[in-house]
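The aim of this short unit is practical: by the end, you should be able to scan a pair of folded records and say something sensible about each. We start with the first protein, listed as its amino acid sequence and then its structure tokens.
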Amino acid sequence: MKNVTEDYNDIEQVELAIQAAERMVGQATMSMDATQLQNATQALEEAKQKLEEAKIINLNHDQWEYSNSRLNRLSNQVENAKD
């Protein structure tokens, strides 16, 4: 069984992954560079994976909803830039 510190670390890893994805999406959508857009898409996928793993472990519903809405907004931003 995980302790509180390990749960916090898991949640922190989700937040860091989302922040990294946000930065990459911002850069990619400003530059409209195909490679950067692909890298941003990959960063989003990795952040979504971390979020799902944290949900299974011990992420409360409100935290999950907030993080998921951020990732959905970022995904839409990248998809709109690709079109």
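Turning to the second protein, read its sequence before its tokens, just as you did above.
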Amino acid sequence: MIHRTGITDKVEVWLSSESAPGDKRWFQGSEKLTHQLSRQADLHWTAPTAASITTLTVTPDHTYQEILGIGTSMEETTVHNLSKMSPSVRTSILNQMTGIGDQGIGFNLFRLTLGTSDFTAQPFYTYDDIADGETDFELKQFSIQKDIELSIVETVRQLVASAPDLLVFASPWSPPAWMKTNGSLLRGQLKEGKEYTEALATYYRMAIQAYLEQGIPIYAMTLQNEPLLETDYPSCYMSPERQKELALALKREFTEHGLDTEIWIFDHNFSNVRAYVTPILNDIDGFAAVDGIALHDYEGEPELMSEIHAAYPDKPIYLTERSVWGTEGAHRIAQYFRNYASSYNAWVTMLDSRIGTHQWLGTPGPTMFIQDATEADRYWLTPEYYLLGQFTRFVRRGAVRIESTYGSTDTVTNVVFRNPDGGVIAVVINQTESEQVFRVLCEGNQFTAVLPAKMVGTYCWRTT
């Protein structure tokens, strides 16, 4: 007897496979993949049976964090490569990112840089670059004209138009050089003094307003990309105490000018998050000024997000920067969500086949889109496009993570969501060298599935 109460009969299935994860050979051309978000035969629920196979127990009524979105970055390197393409090809790529169903993989959250980052083809700049030794506290020289000239504004505006529910958040890599202790966009700190804190807050508010005037609302911003890093590209050390002062000043600026852009603090690694956010969020005024916590995954483990959530459950956590590869990377993304991340953003969307053009100090791995450096309109997709699509094509804004048993890295792991329309989305990852048989047990029913080696499967059904 099949107990169908509260659950529909069929389970839809899609699969994507990895190939040479993170290997530089992807810069030389595409390779054939076994599965690329490939639709499989539907599975069907049966009555539960005794089984010795891996069991993933799903409990839809046990809910966790709400999902804001998943997407990638629109930093200047990507925009520069897109700008070399013909309008029709560029539009096709944007649609492959934001489209729904067969049109694309449904990215709905994009990261924008305020001024340049290390991933740019341009000389480093901010929106208020003036001659050495001068100051501009009244910000008379402020302008986002370079962002307009470099097609950043046009590209992001096209993205926003292509997907009505798309959100943009922004991160600065450095204040203008005249605000910094060393007079440079590289390294240094924000100068001491209330006048510099207030000037930087005004600068950020003006940037948000300037983008809004261009038809691009900025949903949220972080106050400083990687504030514990000083290095030889745009960067700025910022202590938690100084970031709290900046958050308070910026909140006042937003309030006085009728802006509802959220403020996310930190924007750096798991390993330092507790020490950084505690002085800010344990202060009454700091807590009130902050809307969320942004994190990167280059040091430390995702479990630290669960600790931060336990300490500050009212402050959502956002995974704002990390690119990963293969089924191991898909597993890592699942762990972000299993540890209370409300979002995930990949970093850098398109490099060319010469691994350009950027000014990072290392050698990047392959991006989701690779452009042929000798033929601008030619490009190819890496497996990571499809593997991330196993999440983004199905998990919509407003979804909540729901309870599911973890499984194991020796068999399969997973994360499960329930969309606002009641659809349940289980993303299951097989990192092993052999196919894995598992069953999902949910609301008194089960289905059994076989997930091939080195593959990600998405299993969709509806509760009623």
